[in-house]
């Protein structure tokens, strides 16, 4: 019984992120269906995070009321940036890119996320690269391979893969979607969105060190995402009030599902796992989502699969696991996310120093005013 309990504790992070990938796969299918029905991707992003805020906020208010840390200006600015990076920038670009492509293409492109996270961490010196070590070269080469696979997938279509359950829909799909789909434009949007998503994950890991209440942070991110996303949607959809109308149909189902599962539960679970395993571990299971969406998309959405897209997706996965292999070798000498912890600790000590300085100034002022009264 004791050994089973130890196994369960070790397996929990893996089970959590695997189930998360199933949730993300369902989101891709429901979202693509809603977008095909004419839903605005900008409005969809707003409704998704509005639903998440409504669902998560009551739990955060009740469960975190005794442990919620004090809000500081530094934490508030980080939450503003978190609401901008993923709920607003990434989601708008992700859904617009999905509208121009397919659900399978979008989830395959999203596998560049860990490579972008590594590249971003390297640029801002959160990630250390020692070119005398083979595993450091693996991380750099894996990033190049991942980007190359994304380019291959975008530019080379290849012949159609004849799947028995999609053959009867081929001519109908090719004629109905040829005027809508634009793989290059969609891939560019998804790629920029992944850069934003990578920044979000790094910043979320940092913020959790100074604001370690996952539920409250999730609720605040969704709230800020709703506010900032609404501003963006009002600007992009100005003069088109009809896009905000929603009924009891697939559009509402997609918004509720995405809000509850992917924004509400997704942000919370990612934050919990990220605290112990680091942001790269959370993104390591993205290829599972791609496989699930490819199978479900071909069945439910009658998406056509091309050989070039499959080869490109395989190249992306190879590059992804080169990066992850290099990261695993790093973790033999340092704990997961240790660089992020160092930066978070530095940020925390800076906040503490500022608070102490403010306290000293206030005490000095009090002593000065007391002296004046005595005189």
Please describe what this structure looks like:
With about 375 residues, the protein is an all-alpha fold. It is built from 14 helices and no strands. Helix 2 (about 40-65) packs across helix 10. The chain is globular, with a radius of gyration of 23 Å. The model is unreliable at about 170-180, about 340-345 and about 355-375 (pLDDT under 50).
Please give the number of β-strands: 0
- Please report the number of helical segments: 14
For the termini, the CA-CA separation is 74 Å
Instruction: Kindly estimate the percentage of residues that lie in beta strands according to DSSP.
Output: under 5%
Shape: globular
Q: Secondary-structure map with pairings?
A:
Blueprint: H1 2-36, H2 41-63, H3 73-100, H4 103-109, H5 113-123, H6 134-155, H7 170-177, H8 183-210, H9 214-236, H10 250-277, H11 279-283, H12 286-300, H13 307-330, H14 338-374
Helix pairs in contact: 1-4, 1-10, 1-12, 2-3, 2-9, 2-10, 3-8, 3-9, 4-12, 5-6, 5-8, 6-13, 8-14, 9-10
């Amino acid at each position: 019984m004791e050994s089973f309990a130890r196994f369960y504790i070790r397996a929990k992070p893996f089970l959590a992120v695997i189930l998360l990938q199933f949730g993300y796969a369902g989101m891709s299918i429901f979202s693509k269906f809603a977008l095909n029905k004419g839903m605005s991707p900008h409005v969809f992003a707003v409704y998704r995070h509005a639903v998440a805020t409504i669902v998560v906020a009551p739990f955060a208010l009740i469960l975190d009321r005794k442990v919620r840390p004090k809000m500081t200006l530094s934490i508030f600015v980080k939450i503003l940036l978190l609401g901008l990076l993923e709920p607003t920038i990434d989601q708008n670009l992700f859904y617009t890119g999905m509208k121009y492509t397919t659900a399978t293409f979008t989830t395959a492109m999203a596998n560049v996320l860990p490579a972008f996270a590594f590249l971003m961490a390297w640029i801002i010196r959160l990630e250390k690269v020692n070119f005398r070590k083979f595993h450091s070269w693996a991380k750099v080469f894996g990033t190049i391979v991942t980007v190359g696979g994304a380019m291959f997938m975008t530019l080379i279509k290849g012949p159609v893969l004849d799947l028995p359950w999609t053959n009867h829909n081929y001519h109908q799909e090719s004629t109905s979607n040829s005027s809508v789909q634009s793989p290059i434009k969609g891939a560019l949007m998804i790629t920029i969105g992944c850069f934003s998503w990578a920044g979000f994950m790094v910043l979320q890991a940092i913020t959790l060190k100074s604001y370690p209440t996952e539920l409250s942070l999730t609720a605040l991110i969704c709230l800020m995402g709703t506010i900032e996303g609404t501003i963006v949607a009002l600007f992009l959809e100005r003069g088109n009030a009809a896009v905000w109308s929603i009924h009891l149909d697939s559009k509402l189902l997609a918004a509720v599902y995405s809000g509850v599962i992917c924004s509400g539960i997704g942000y919370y679970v990612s934050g919990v796992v990220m605290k112990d395993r680091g942001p790269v571990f959370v993104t390591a299971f993205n290829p599972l989502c791609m496989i699930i969406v490819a199978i479900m998309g071909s069945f439910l959405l009658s998406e056509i699969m091309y050989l070039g897209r499959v080869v490109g997706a395989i190249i992306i996965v190879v590059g992804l696991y080169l990066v992850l292999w290099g990261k695993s070798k790093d973790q033999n000498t340092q704990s997961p996310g240790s660089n992020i912890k160092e930066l978070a600790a530095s940020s925390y000590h800076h906040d503490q120093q500022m608070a102490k300085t403010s306290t000293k100034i206030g005490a000095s002022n009090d002593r000065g005013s007391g002296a004046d009264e005595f005189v």
